[in-house]
Amino acid sequence: MTTPKLSIERVGKVFEGRSSRVAALDEVTLDVAAGQFLVVVGPSGCGKSTLLDLLAGLTTPTSGRLLVDGAPITGPGLDRGVVFQQYALLPWRTALRNVEFGLEGKGLTRRARTDTARQYLDLVGLSGFADRYPHELSGGMRQRVAIARALAFDPDVLLMDEPFAALDAQTRETLQDELLRIWETTRKTVVFITHGIDEAVYLGQRVAVLTSRPGRIKAVVDIDLGDRRQTEDVRSTPLFAEYRHQIWSELHGEVARAQRSELSAREVVSVG
Amino acid sequence: MARRTPGDRIRPLVRHLLHAAATVSRKSIAVVAFLVLWEIAPRVGLVDSTFLVPFSTAVHALWDLARSGQLWDDTRVSLTRSVIGFGIAVGIGVPLGLVIGWYRTVADILNPLLELFRNTAALALLPVFILILGIGETSKISIVVYACTFPILLNTITAVRGVDPTLVKAARSLGLSTPRLFRQVVLPSSVPTILTGIRMAAASSILVLIAAEMVGAKDGLGYLINAAQQNFEIEQMYAGIIAISLIGTIVNALLVRLERRLTRWRPASR
Q1: What percent of chain B is predicted at pLDDT more than 90?
Q2: B221 CB-contact burial (10 Å; exposed 0-12 / middle 13-18 / buried 19+)
Q3: Which residues touch B207 (CB under 8 Å, ≥6 apart)?
Q4: Which of A57, A78, A91 lies at the smallest CB-CB distance from B266?
Q5: Does B265 touch chain A (CB under 8 A)?
Q6: What is the pLDDT of residue B6?
Q7: Contact A58 B267 (CB under 8 A)
């Protein structure tokens, strides 16, 4: 058996506040094979983003361990590229210079950096916008720049934290297709966090459903829609609807539970 | 109707010039009115012309001071003092502000003391500075340093606290070390707010310096004004005041331009 690209082994994460203690994740175990597209879907506040931060090495687990290629994650590394919901582009840098940002730690010459950055702007379809500043670009374009930045230093793993959540529906669909195309050409391992069921079914080879706080793996659903691009409007096929319903059923109780606990938390606050 | 006359081409140009002229006159009308009032009031006896000379007389005196070289000497002395003091203040305020803004513990320890210093008017300390450092250059530069440090320091702290956390997160995910994080993320995103502090500091550097020169100095623009008043050379006193107001305006305009240059990446609406 080959080593999985990513291993999450009985990972728990507890945030200690001054007077509160919040368990974000509990006993999460999950393997991701090299080249796989995994989507993690869960109700809001279920610790999805915490899981991503752990994989990115931005925070450490309270219990359990996370491995890349069998070696424990000790911090951020250029073997993993992260794409955030809020784009996180440096506003004082042009699109091209933003893509170069991730390459600056790699000891390349300036010229090699620029060439690579241009190549990845091409890949995300932004060749003509290299010299634009982020505020001159639309939300969808900004996220394309962020994806190019995360890919430019050629990580094995792409970690995406609700990257399309802030975009309008049309732009989101376009970028979903672009992402699948990029995934097919680059063969990266992708971990994609979302709260959208449609998005999860459309993008994922596997969809992991997380419970509401503390997040646990409730189910892992394998998705096989065939070649998505062979079928016109795959979202309206019966198979898609079936997968959608399956994940919806898994999630449904969790969303209600999450809302109840949020409401009761608010009551506690308003009474206190 | 379709025939183009030369007038068709000239008209947009004329309109453009008229528009520009309208803008200029709208922006200068208040200043011009003030200067006209200053000119007329002493002449028609609205105020005593012994104590408030007409604007043109003051300008004439300024011209004489400039020709004799005295204006240049005093200006150079004053500018040297304030530039040195200002430079030292930037050197202290920006790095210290970065550290205080970034490290909570340092902020908790230093904030109460800084708050105390900040609320002690610089000029109240002038006698202390003179007592300890004498009436030479050191005491004047020191008071400028004191007055300039706080706007720069406080704006730098605010700037660092305001750095977008997702930018920091993204930079960390790219494996940036703390020094690189400061140089490539924290500092650049703080530049606009720091520059506002620098502009405030520049204004107060001139303010406290002039005051310091009035109290104990043998040269400088503050001395020029104060000495002129005491020797009853009223035109020269006003000439000195005009010189200071011009210098202040020019310095501010230069800093605004610098600010624009360094913050071109921001949306125009800001």
Answers
A1: 48
A2: buried
A3: B147
A4: A91
A5: yes
A6: 62
A7: no
- For residues B188 and B206, the answer to whether their CB atoms sit within 8 Å is no
Q: Which tokens is B24 given?
A: 């200029």
Would you call A88 and B167 a contact, using CB atoms and an 8 Å cutoff? yes
Q: In chain A, what are the domain boundaries?
A: 1-62+157-218, 89-155
Cα(B40)–Cα(A243) distance, rounded to whole angstroms?
Answer: 87
B260–chain A Cβ distance below 8 A for any pair: no
Homologous superfamily, domain A1-62+157-218: P-loop containing nucleotide triphosphate hydrolases (3.40.50.300)
Strands, DSSP E only, in chain B?
Answer: none
Answer whether A6's CB lies under 8 Å from A67's CB. Answer: yes
Give the C-alpha separation, B187 to B196, whole Å: 14
**How far is Cα A43 from Cα A257, in angstroms, rounded to an integer?**
9
pLDDT single digits (tens) B117-162: 888 888 888 888 888 988 788 889 999 999 999 999 999 999 999 9
Instruction: Judge whether residue B184 has pLDDT over 70.
Output: yes
Whether the ω angle into residue A214 lies within 30 degrees of 0, i.e. cis, is: yes
At B135, phi and psi to the nearest 5? -100, 15
pTM given for the model: 0.78
Cβ <8 Å between A135 and B265: yes
